[in-house]
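stage 2 :: seqdesign
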């Protein structure tokens, strides 16, 4: 008998169906010589500091740094029942060996190994490593199980990551919380990511825009411009001199440019496009592609590879044939796919790029919701685009003269649409708005254009843009690389599997907020980064750590050396920061709280607390109580949406207020009235009778 352990029940059931285990038991299924059970995410975790020693319940400087000599683990309260089932099965006499079938990656390996060790199991381990939930892929995976020892380095890497997160999180959080008398949550990867957002926001704030003027010569779509001019009168003089005159091309610089087809999607590039095209958060895109993976429509999502193995050439050709017939816009596309562009076994480590499965070719995609269909369409289109011809065009940088004045114009001539034709058809079908491109214009040296109209425009130099999830994911992936090339190792922040969760945690912790697509630091986020030392908030250092973890997984670096380096840094940090003088109390009252808007009285942040929505202004008394008695007397609650309406408009109109005394339902407007100190009262206003 063999015991198969998956990461979650849905995956376990899919595996059980393929291998013929169909008899349902409590916490597992049985059949055909197999027992199939599951974890529920993480069943086992590291103990908190207070579980090592009672004195650690109190946060104090004298106890730091806290570095366990022996690491203690515990079963999470909500998963004890399933852990006991797994423990019994793992140590059962009828089980010959264990098949680890958790997600084929670093985190999946850690989930299984912690359960295995906590259960004190000593049975041999085999590893199921698959990139698709298709029946054929599962059968092939079970036919080619590897010994668990082959993944020992991967486990050590995962264990190091978890211990490093614990050491930095526990010690740095306690150290700076004690020093600043605030409850500060500091994460090994979260904090450097926050530092990037804060730094970008600060550069925008410090940017000093400068005004300049430009003279334009226009003829149809042709728009030539002068150099930047500091004075409006100079620009207007040029415009006057050139009005209704001809201009001539005096210089022309022609460059032929070739844009290679895009690579296949890894998780990060898919998340970026999901955000760019549809506004999906990184977490939403991950959830959508994970759902389709479990539906056997796409391959394993948590990958950092953008290539397929050399052996997948023939299956990729077949997949393209399916996609051309399945995608509505692709039926008109004429191209000869070159699958060699996406094949490179050397660039595939744990998993290949995300592509549709063979089963997706015959699947009814109408069963997918709109968001799933959008992501599936992106993945499918990328397979076609990545195997298409390059986009080839010419740029024409021209210098023109009009009545002794010089103007400049850049035009473009497309020579070959290539993969762009496929992308354009997809965007048109999905209603994705394309960015404006350089005008295509028939121009050459010596050509006369006109007569032209002239005009003057007022312009300003532009600051850097706030991060969106698209651009932040790109920055997280590249940090520490400088210029990223084909041969450069990615020294990024986090991994493709964790970046979405990192962003969400920053938002949930009240350090970052979403403003439409932009990610902007809160006062609390700005304050936290201000006081932290470089080694804690440095994206580059954290990226180096992430690369070290990758090298541990590859057997190139020592796990012990890595952890010793983390411990030494914590020791140095504690000894260096033993006191804070003037900076104590420099944090806003929003620290660690979710900001929901601005106070209508003083303009300070209003935070969501346990019992109220409260202004953080030092002398402001504005507060909206969640159990407000007046609203309760009218059959209503002060929920988040209602609080925001009162803050924005000062009143809320209801059609279904209900009197507690009489039980009658009526229409009225509840107005919020505040005094100078911010104290709130409510008044009822009834509609005028007609």
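stage 2 :: out
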């Amino acid at each position: 008998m063999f015991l198969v352990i998956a990461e979650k029940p849905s995956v376990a059931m899919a595996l059980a169906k393929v291998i013929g285990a169909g008899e349902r038991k409590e916490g597992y299924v049985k059949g055909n010589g197999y027992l199939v059970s599951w974890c529920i995410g993480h069943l086992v975790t590291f103990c908190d500091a207070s579980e090592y020693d009672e004195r650690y319940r109190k946060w104090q400087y004298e106890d730091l740094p806290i570095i366990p000599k022996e690491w203690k683990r515990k079963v999470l309260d909500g998963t004890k029942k399933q852990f006991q089932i797994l423990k019994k099965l793992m140590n059962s006499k009828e089980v010959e060996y264990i098949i680890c079938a958790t997600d084929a990656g670093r985190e999946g390996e850690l989930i299984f190994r912690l359960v295995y060790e906590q259960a004190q199991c000593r049975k041999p381990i085999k590893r199921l490593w698959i990139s698709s939930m298709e029946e054929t892929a599962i059968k092939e995976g079970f036919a080619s199980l590897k010994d668990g020892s082959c993944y020992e380095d991967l486990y050590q890497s995962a264990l190091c990551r978890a211990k490093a997160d614990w050491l930095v999180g526990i010690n740095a959080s306690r150290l700076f919380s004690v020093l600043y008398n605030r409850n500060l949550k500091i994460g090994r990867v979260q904090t450097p990511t926050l530092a990037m957002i804060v730094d970008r926001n600060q550069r925008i704030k410090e940017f000093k825009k400068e005004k300049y003027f430009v003279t334009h010569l226009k003829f149809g779509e042709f728009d030539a411009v002068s150099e930047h001019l500091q004075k409006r009168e100079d620009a207007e003089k040029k415009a006057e001199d050139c009005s209704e005159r001809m201009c001539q091309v005096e210089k022309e610089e022609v460059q032929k440019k070739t844009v290679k087809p895009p690579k296949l999607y890894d998780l990060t590039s898919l998340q970026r496009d999901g955000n760019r095209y549809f506004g999906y958060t990184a977490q939403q895109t991950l959830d959508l592609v994970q759902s389709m993976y479990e539906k056997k429509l796409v391959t394993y999502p948590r990958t950092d590879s953008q290539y397929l193995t050399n052996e997948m050439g023939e299956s990729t050709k077949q997949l393209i044939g399916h996609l051309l017939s399945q995608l509505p816009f692709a039926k008109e596309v004429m191209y000869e796919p070159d699958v060699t562009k996406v094949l490179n076994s050397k660039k595939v480590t744990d998993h290949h790029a995300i592509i549709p499965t063979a089963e997706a070719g015959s699947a009814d995609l109408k069963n997918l919701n709109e968001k799933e269909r959008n992501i599936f369409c992106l993945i499918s289109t990328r397979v076609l685009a990545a195997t298409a011809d390059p986009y080839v065009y010419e740029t024409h940088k021209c210098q023109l003269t009009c009545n002794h004045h010089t103007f400049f114009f850049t035009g473009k001539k497309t020579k070959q649409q290539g993969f762009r034709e496929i992308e354009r058809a997809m965007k048109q079908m999905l209603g994705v708005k394309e960015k404006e491109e350089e005008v295509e214009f028939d121009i050459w040296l010596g050509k006369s254009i006109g007569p032209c109209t002239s005009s003057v425009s007022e312009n300003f130099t532009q600051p850097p843009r706030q991060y969106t999830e698209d651009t932040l994911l790109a920055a997280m992936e590249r940090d520490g690389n400088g210029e990223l090339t084909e041969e450069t190792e990615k020294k990024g922040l986090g991994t493709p599997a964790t970046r979405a969760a990192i962003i969400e945690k920053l938002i949930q912790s009240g350090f970052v907020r979403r403003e439409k697509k932009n990610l902007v630091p809160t006062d609390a986020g700005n304050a936290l980064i201000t006081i932290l030392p470089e080694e804690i908030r440095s994206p580059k250092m954290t990226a180096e750590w992430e690369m070290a973890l990758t090298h541990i997984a590859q057997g190139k670096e020592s796990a012990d050396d890595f952890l010793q380096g983390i411990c030494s840094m914590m020791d140095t940090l504690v000894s260096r920061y033993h006191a804070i003088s003037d900076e104590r109390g420099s944090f806003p009252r929003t620290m660690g709280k979710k900001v929901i808007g601005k106070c209508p009285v003083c303009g300070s942040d209003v935070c969501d607390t346990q019992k109220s929505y409260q202004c953080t202004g030092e002398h402001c008394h504005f507060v909206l109580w969640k159990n407000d008695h007046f609203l309760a007397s009218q059959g209503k609650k002060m929920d988040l949406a209602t609080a925001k309406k009162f803050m924005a408009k000062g009143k809320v109109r209801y059609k279904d207020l209900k009197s507690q005394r009489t039980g009658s339902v009526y229409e009225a407007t509840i107005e919020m009235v505040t005094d100078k100190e911010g104290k709130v009262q409510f008044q009822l206003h009834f509609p005028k009778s007609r």
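stage 3 :: structure notes
- The chain has 20 helices and 25 strands.
- Residues 211-260+391-460 form a domain with the Topoisomerase I; domain 3 fold (CATH 2.70.20.10).
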